[in-house]
Automatic annotation (TrEMBL):
Lineage: Bacteria, Bacillati, Bacillota, Bacilli, Lactobacillales
Cross-referenced Gene3D superfamilies: Sulfate adenylyltransferase
Transmembrane segments: none
Annotated organism of origin: Streptococcus parasanguinis F0449
Stretches assigned to the ASCH domain: 24-144
InterPro entries: ASCH_domain, DUF984, PUA-like_sf
Pfam families tied to this protein: ASCH (PF04266)
Protein name (record): ASCH domain protein
């Protein structure tokens, strides 16, 4: 299903979502992570704050809806952003790591994986990752399909 087709189907249920679609795939292993969202195992994500500035992108907003895509840009599900916060990397909690639903769901696993990814992505943008680097933490819930 295309993102537009899924958006149109959900709009029949929730007309307040409007017409503007925000559709994206997770940067690392989009198929696995989209499946974790679809099954309800993954209810949170994190991204490097500084990359929003470099790419001139607005931060995610609570109450907005996004189409989660797979690696072939097909719609997997629609989520509603329920919470957004910005913290230094070293202050991310065990609770958030668990909600991300990856690996063994531990904070140690979360830190290892995210430090590697953020270091690489920030380096590509000419930035340096440190434990004090800010991260954008999002929590969400799947709203379609139920």
């Amino acid at each position: 299903m295309t993102p537009q087709e899924m958006w149109n189907a959900y709009k029949q249920i929730n007309p307040s979502i409007g017409d503007e679609i925000d559709a994206w795939a997770f940067g690392v292993d989009p198929d696995l992570l989209a499946e974790l969202v679809f099954t309800g195992e993954k209810t949170a994500t994190a991204s490097a704050y500084d990359l929003y500035t470099v790419e001139d992108e607005p931060l995610p907003q609570e109450g907005t809806f996004d189409v989660v895509l797979d690696s072939k840009d097909q719609a997997v599900c629609i989520i509603e952003i329920t919470k957004v916060s910005v913290l230094p990397f070293h202050q991310v909690s065990e609770d958030h790591a668990y909600k991300e639903g990856e690996g063994d769901k531990s904070l140690a696993h979360w830190r290892q994986v995210h430090e590697e990814v953020f270091t690489e992505w920030m380096s590509e943008a000419g930035l340096t990752f440190t434990p004090d680097s800010k991260v954008v933490l999002e929590e969400f819930r799947k709203v379609y399909p139920l």
